[in-house]
Amino acid sequence: MQASDRFNINSQLEHLQAKYVGTGHADMNRFEWAVNIQRDSYASYVGHYPILAYFAIAENESIGRERYNFMQKMLLPCGLPPEREDD
Amino acid sequence: MASMDPEIAKTQEERKKLEQQLASLTSVTFDTDLYGGSDKDAYLSSIPANEDEENLDSMDNEVARKLASYTAPKSLLKEMPRGAEDDGDIGFRKPQRIIDREDDYRQRRLNRIISPERHDPFSAGEKTPDPSVRTYADVMREEALKREKEDTLRLIAKKKKEEEEAAKAAPEKGKDSGAAAAPQKRRNRWDQSQEDGGAKKAKTSDWDLPDTTPGRWDATPTPGRVADATPGRRNRWDETPTPGRLADSDATPAGGATPGATPAGMTWDATPKLPGLATPTPKRQRSRWDETPVSMGSATPLPGATPAAAYTPGVTPVGGVELATPTPGAINMRGAITPEQYNLLRWEKDIEERNRPLTDEELDAMFPQEGYKVLEPPASYVPIRTPARKLLATPTPLGTPLYQIPEENRGQQFDVPKEAPGGLPFMKPEDYQYFGALLNEDDEEQLTPEEQKERKIMKLLLKVKNGTPPQRKTALRQLTDKAREFGAGPLFNRILPLLMQPTLEDQERHLLVKVIDRVLYKLDELVRPYVHKILVVIEPLLIDEDYYARVEGREIISNLSKAAGLATMIAAMRPDIDNIDEYVRNTTARAFSVVASALGIPALLPFLKAVCQSKKSWQARHTGIKIVQQIAILIGCAVLPHLRSLVEIIEHGLNDENQKVRTITALSLAALAEAAAPYGIESFDSVLKPLWKGIRQHRGKVLAAFLKAIGFIIPLMEALYASYYTKEVMVVLIREFQSPDEEMKKIVLKVVKQCVSTEGVDAEYIRTDILPEFFKNFWVRRMALDRRNYRQLVDTTVEIANKVGVADIVGRIVEDLKDESEPYRRMVMETIEKVVTNLGASDIDARLEELLIDGILYAFQEQTSDDANVMLNGFGAVVNSLGQRVKPYLPQICGTIKWRLNNKSAKVRQQAADLISRIAVVMKQCQEEQLMGHLGVVLYEYLGEEYPEVLGSILGALKSIVNVIGMTKMTPPIKDLLPRLTPILKNRHEKVQENCIDLVGRIADRGAEFVPAREWMRICFELLEMLKAHKKGIRRATVNTFGYIAKAIGPQDVLATLLNNLKVQERQNRVCTTVAIAIVAETCSPFTVLPALMNEYRVPELNVQNGVLKSLSFLFEYIGEMGKDYIYAVTPLLEDALMDRDLVHRQTAASAVKHMALGVAGLGCEDALVHLLNYVWPNIFETSPHVINAVMEAIEGMRVALGAAIVLNYCLQGLFHPARKVREVYWKIYNSLYIGAQDALVAAYPILEDEQNNVYSRPELMMFV
């Protein structure tokens, strides 16, 4: 980053973005991004009642159970993080 | 109408005559009433015409009166003499020295000394403190000693005086037994308290209300009154030493007298004098006149001094370490000369140079050879060579008349400061005292670690104080980071003396205070021994004039108390609570309130309780109660939980034996009630009785304070009680209506206002019991002369009017609109304006209405002062609230206006024109269209006015007439009016421009058809010039007018003009032109404009092309959805622009794309938008901030128009790109996409392959029913 744009709005933009959970950055790896995607997806399923109802019919579960399952899956959606090979 | 004017003139003439008769009849009684005496010289011979010139401070008034007996050139009395170096940089804002704006009271901060550090019992644990350390007990003992000495000295003085008086009285006894007329006894402030009861007399300026402005903790403390807090205070003029008198008479013991035997008038904390020393010592208490140095000893801590013995806190009159006069031998070289001595020397050198005796040659050259004879000097003549006598003639700060050149030559170079080594910032001469050591090029290696540390701190501080911003920043950071390493002692020993430096500037103080703040945070409990030291330099900030300084001071003290803890704070400040110096007690009380707000009131309550009940001294009780007052002012409604306990702590003060304590108690109650309003009346139950009893017992300032407390408590009460208590207090209030005392008047007015505004007081009671006396005593001319009285009276009267209605109040004062004193008329007018605006005019009956109109006309016509808005507003308010009832008077009003429009004075013409704009709406209501038409014609005739202010007002008046009567009925007809306006558009005066463009715009909007197209074209050309205007309002009006004109005469010609204007150099002009083009396009439909605009893009000129692009951008912004019809037309042009080499092309095109995309979202133009996105996308790697911004916004626009999924697809290619630079950009886009439309992305995320342990797939999305 140049000295000149250290103070301009664009750098602030990145700073602002970084405050939101779920945003990414250049050093993000596949796993981290995937976790975000999974969590966003589950949050979205839970948030849209029609979709939740649709899944419930498809899986023959109650809607409440479906919601509970999705929330549980948000904990570790992709399993444990892989070992870092570089450090 | 014409016949009416002479008639009015006649009646006016008659009225004037009558009034003169009346005035001559009443004048004598009136004046005695007013001035209470027949001394005509004391009368004010003229009334200040300008409000600003009035002395706001009653003290100043008094000064002005006394000033008459002093003869000195005005410039000398007002300005302090300036050193020669001051004239160098005139024209730049000079850095403001704090001391220059401080009054005597605030300068007393320099009398305080930074006390040596104290014992910290917390860190010491059980150990017995080292005898060399000052403990709490030591400090208290010293204080007690000081008090005792004070008492003894006072007793001695008293006894001496009694003896003297007795001696004097004895011989006189024979002839006059009433020898009580002894010279007025000079009262020491300590005598005051005891004799107050008897020797009470109402002196106007002798008010002991240091805080008559509670609730305004943030407000600037009024210097005059704070200073008054010491009774028996010397008049400021006695105090100002003239250059010939070194120290003022009060502070200098009469020649030969030893300090111990000085008369009672001596201030004990003044400069210590050396008995027998002939040279006057420089005074420590500084005034603007003699910038004498502070003595080194007092400003710096005493290193290594054994505290108990050598610690002489500045009051000891015997010589010690801190002699005020530094003898050259006793002090080290560079520290010896204080900055002010430098200044003085420099100045003196200059003066001496000019005033040296003339040589014989010079005299020969001056005088003619003949007719003059050289006389021999008489044999007895000896020129003054004795240093002492010479010194008496011109004060120099040094003990010897001639400046002794120090061994080293460095200090001599006043003008060329030695360059500081090692990249240190510039050092001002006054800094040598503190930073001089840095100039020694000692080898760092040879210094002890301690010295090295000192040096390091000094360097850093110098950088903070004088360095450039980056230097300052790093130095500040280093100081903070290494604070604990440096240690509290070395740090504060360096910082605090700097803050006491007399030549400190605001900025420097701010920086140093910031250092303290940061360091405090780091040092935490290590500061404990230094708490008092820090308080000594920080407390003065609490009473600074500057709001930010006060806030800073509070913040520091708050942090300090959090770092040191309550116990340490109390231990440090307890001795100051009954300090003999009022200044110290005042600042301590304020500091304590800050501590209370930082650590919580409950923690401090037990201590406060003990202090407020102190039996030992009334000063302690006074300070304790004052702390409560300051707490209330500082924390406002947050006192509510503790209200009862706070009131209980101070309530006994109402019956205290000392009147100052009674006063401050009442003031504290007032502050508490004000802070608690509208709750908490139950907490005040216990003080109601003493307060109401008190107002019958007390007189003077105690009474004033009691009344003030009552005034704040009554609004808290329920209606029933409020009514009862108001009636109780009203007797006293009405009695005090007659008080000649200004301060009492203000308080009484305020209390009346507070009482009247409470619910329980009914209108009838006010009408019968209060109004007659109120008007008799307050509605007199003199009240209008003082600004604060004026305000208060108007406010109170308006409040009363809210209760008793318009008719009562206006009826009583309406006659005064014809009073002969203009300020008084203005006060009446302002009151009427406010009352009528609040309550309307429906209560005003026909008779009153007549009087009122008559009065305002008279007042309006007779005004001479510059501040015309009061009359104008008053007139406007009355006419507007009367509405249609004004109709019968309109001819008369218009006659006046016409008459005044023709006046010689520009001001009068302007007021007349302004009045038309105020009353135009009412004239319309009264259906006086003919009259308005007539006025229009008159105004039209005055369009040749040469004063721009007046011309602006005339145009404004025309505009208001056009607005109400419409284009068709306007006289003169629009077709005549507009051509007359065209040349006025050339006028560069802002007011003229604004009013003119408004009027032209109005006509273009509503009545364009009355004017031929050619005229409009001419106006278009003039308008281009107006785009240069500085004022945004003018530019906006101009741009809009382009739109109206284009609508009226078709866009072609206007557009051609505008497009041509794109070629000009000036950016602001081009930008405004592009806006105008866009507006024209919006008003005349884009298709009329776009072809010509796009054609213009072919001009191979950067400015023009960019202008076209910018117009397109604005155009699409304005037309919004309409853009869908034009998007395909402009796409090729945008394609070209987005591929241009020029950055600005791409930037502007991107912003056009953004507006376009946002406009057509959801309207089925996705194909074109995707096409454009393909051109925008390659620009994402731009680094120029404006370009990248525009590109990102365009992509955001695309997200809205195309949906997040499509943009995500563009994004995916780069999120895991091997090049970090690329990834960074793509993630930025991804993030803004994510924040903008996170939910929409869920469906569009790519399918990720599972890895060994990790499941990345999202099977739910595959489900199908």
From TrEMBL, chain A:
GO terms for cellular component: precatalytic spliceosome; U2 snRNP. Coiled coil: none annotated. GO terms for biological process: mRNA splicing, via spliceosome. Belongs to the SF3B5 family. PANTHER family: SPLICING FACTOR 3B SUBUNIT 5. This is Splicing factor subunit. It comes from Quillaja saponaria.
From TrEMBL, chain B:
Residues 842-1077 form the TOG domain. Residues 29-57, 112-136, 159-303 are annotated as: Disordered. It is found in: Nucleus. GO terms for biological process: spliceosomal complex assembly. The keyword Repeat applies. The keyword Nucleus applies. Residues 160-176, 189-206 have a biased composition (Basic and acidic residues). Keywords: mRNA processing, mRNA splicing, Nucleus, Repeat, Spliceosome. Its main location: nucleus. Pfam families: PPP2R1A-like_HEAT (PF22646), SF3b1 (PF08920). This is Splicing factor 3B subunit 1. It comes from Quillaja saponaria.
